[in-house]
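F.,

This is the one I mentioned.
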């Protein structure tokens, strides 16, 4: 039997209370007798003063009666025993405890402690004697019976005695599940699985209002029904479910019990039963990330996203006032959208993203106090949906609601950058930097400085942008390819620091030699250096290595062909770029100007277009 660290506190309190009660009786005995109340007595003669320092014997009426003296000694022995046990003087501690039990062998908690200590020393006869004395003193206390059963079963291998004491414990306290479990374990260890099952059936017939009783019984039954070597029979699953249903019926708002039951249903792939319970747990404990994670994991592992979505939608119809179903449904729809995006189904993906955003918004409307929901919605709006203006409005409101959380300022800066409000984005990035230095330095990672650098580039602050990209590289040099490429391309685009730009892009290509974007950057540096043949070679390689057509790469190829005076090829690639980016007015003007020039003479007489 296991005892907590503070086991002695309760026993000490009990012993002290009993001792003080005895002293109260002593005080009552010293009060005036009832017959003296109505009797007049003559004033007593004044006795001469006495020097108490010379009186070695206490007054007779202050002396403890023998019984109370024994209890006082027992209290002292108990305190001494706990001190000795803490000092690892086990033999002396046991002796002190034994003296306490000699005074009152019915102190079951102490008897269990002493028996456990003796069992560790393999002194089983003494341990058994202590427990049997406790039973003689208090025959209706079940704990000593259970301890005896444990000793006989585990250490002495005497199954008959173990079974006898376990059954006696059950007879004394039929609602004590530990007694049934002890009996079940004895039968299993003895190689009698049918008898063990009979013990569980015996427990199943008990009328208990304790939800933990049914949870523990359900787990024991589940360990039998859900064996690894085969699928459980439907009737076995139904039987186990019944115990967990009783746990739910008696649990009320006990989130720990509800979570236990939900875990069982999720583990046994009964997701329909698990979802409402997890939602209830999240209603009682909104920040229980573990419950949320288990629910999401259950959906993934059982590959029942569609079914899960249907169930959540049904729950929303029944309980539209709860925010959790909206939140969970939004996450599933968001995941669906990203899967469709990876499968190159953009229209279907956008439809899922729109539904996800609507559910996130409903969750926020019902419960505006959850910061994570705002952040999830903002990321959804900024990246896959590309509705940065909408995201900026949301984040401006959220920043006011959650002051001191730098993530909101950071996301707002990104939203403003993506909405092409570059100057304002730089200001907000600087505010996010200052907030994070005060509140949460974890935000200031390599990605933060990369995003800040992109905003500075967009705002025309190229030197500042380069410094931010270099900061990003220094914080995470092993994952810096994107930052190396960005700063190199930025310099090439603005025809500055071309040698250093080529070096930066070269470092990016060391990480990923066939990356189409990086090859495009290198080709563009060669273009700026007027190395048009080298530029064309790298740019054509870039187009071949990209997973999808890119209008910028096609335009760069067209520009390079133009410089090489190969105008038909230039026009061909410019038109390909125009088909992918029809809003590019500068490119449209370039194409029109070239066509006009071509109509005026043969290609050999056409001036190249920059």
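My design for it:
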């Amino acid at each position: 039997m296991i005892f907590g660290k503070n086991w002695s506190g309760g026993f000490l309190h009990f012993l002290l209370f009993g001792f003080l009660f005895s002293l109260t009786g002593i005080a009552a005995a010293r009060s005036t007798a009832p017959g003296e109340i109505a009797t007049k007595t003559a004033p007593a003669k004044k006795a001469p003063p006495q020097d108490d320092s010379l009186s070695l014997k206490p007054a007779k009426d202050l002396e403890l009666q023998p019984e109370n003296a024994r209890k006082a000694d027992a209290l002292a022995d108990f305190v001494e025993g706990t001190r000795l046990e803490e000092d690892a003087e086990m033999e002396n501690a046991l002796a002190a405890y034994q003296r306490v039990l000699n005074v009152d062998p019915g102190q079951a908690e102490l008897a269990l402690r002493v028996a456990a200590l003796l069992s560790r020393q393999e002194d089983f006869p003494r341990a058994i004697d202590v427990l049997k004395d406790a039973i003689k003193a208090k025959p209706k206390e079940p704990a000593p019976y259970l301890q005896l059963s444990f000793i006989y079963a585990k250490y002495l291998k005497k199954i008959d005695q173990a079974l006898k004491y376990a059954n006696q414990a059950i007879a004394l306290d039929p609602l004590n599940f530990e007694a049934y479990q002890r009996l079940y374990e004895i039968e299993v260890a003895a190689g009698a699985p049918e008898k063990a099952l009979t013990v569980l059936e015996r427990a199943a017939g008990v009328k208990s209002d304790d939800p933990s009783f049914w949870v523990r019984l359900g787990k024991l039954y589940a360990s039998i029904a859900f064996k690894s070597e085969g699928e459980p029979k439907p009737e076995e699953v139904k039987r186990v479910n019944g115990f967990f249903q009783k746990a739910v019926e008696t649990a009320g708002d006990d989130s720990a019990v509800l979570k236990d039951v939900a875990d069982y249903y999720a583990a046994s792939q009964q997701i329909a039963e698990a979802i409402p319970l997890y939602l209830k747990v999240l209603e009682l404990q909104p920040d229980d990330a573990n419950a949320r994670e288990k629910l999401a994991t259950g959906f993934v592992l059982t590959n029942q996203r569609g079914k899960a979505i249907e169930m959540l939608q049904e729950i929303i119809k029944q309980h539209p006032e709860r925010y959790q179903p909206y939140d969970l449904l939004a996450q599933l729809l968001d995941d669906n959208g990203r899967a469709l995006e990876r499968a190159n189904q953009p229209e279907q993906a956008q439809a899922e993203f729109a539904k996800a955003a609507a559910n996130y918004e409903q969750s926020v409307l019902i419960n505006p106090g959850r910061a994570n929901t705002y952040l999830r919605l903002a990321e959804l709006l900024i990246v896959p949906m590309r509705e940065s203006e909408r995201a900026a409005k949301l984040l401006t409101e959220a920043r006011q609601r959650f002051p001191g959380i730098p993530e909101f300022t950071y996301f707002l800066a990104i939203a403003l950058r993506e909405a092409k409000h570059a100057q304002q984005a730089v200001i907000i990035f600087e505010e996010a930097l200052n907030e994070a230095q005060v509140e949460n330095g974890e935000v200031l990672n390599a990605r933060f400085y990369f995003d800040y650098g992109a905003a500075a580039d967009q705002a025309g602050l190229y030197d500042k942008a380069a410094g931010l990209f270099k900061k990003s590289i220094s914080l995470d040099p092993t994952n810096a390819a994107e930052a190396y490429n960005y700063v190199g391309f930025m310099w090439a685009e603005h025809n500055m620091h071309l040698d250093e730009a080529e070096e930066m892009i070269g470092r990016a290509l060391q990480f990923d030699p066939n990356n189409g974007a990086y090859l495009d950057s290198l080709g563009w540096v060669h273009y700026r250096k007027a190395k048009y043949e080298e530029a064309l070679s790298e740019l054509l390689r870039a187009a071949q290595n990209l997973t999808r057509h890119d209008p910028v790469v096609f335009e760069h190829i067209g520009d390079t062909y133009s410089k090489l005076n190969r105008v038909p090829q230039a026009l061909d690639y410019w038109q390909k770029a125009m088909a992918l980016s029809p809003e590019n007015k500068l490119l449209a003007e370039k194409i029109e100007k070239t066509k006009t020039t071509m109509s005026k003479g043969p290609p050999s007489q056409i001036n190249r277009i920059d």
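Residues 1-47, 50-56, 604-610 have pLDDT under 50 and may be disordered.

Talk soon.
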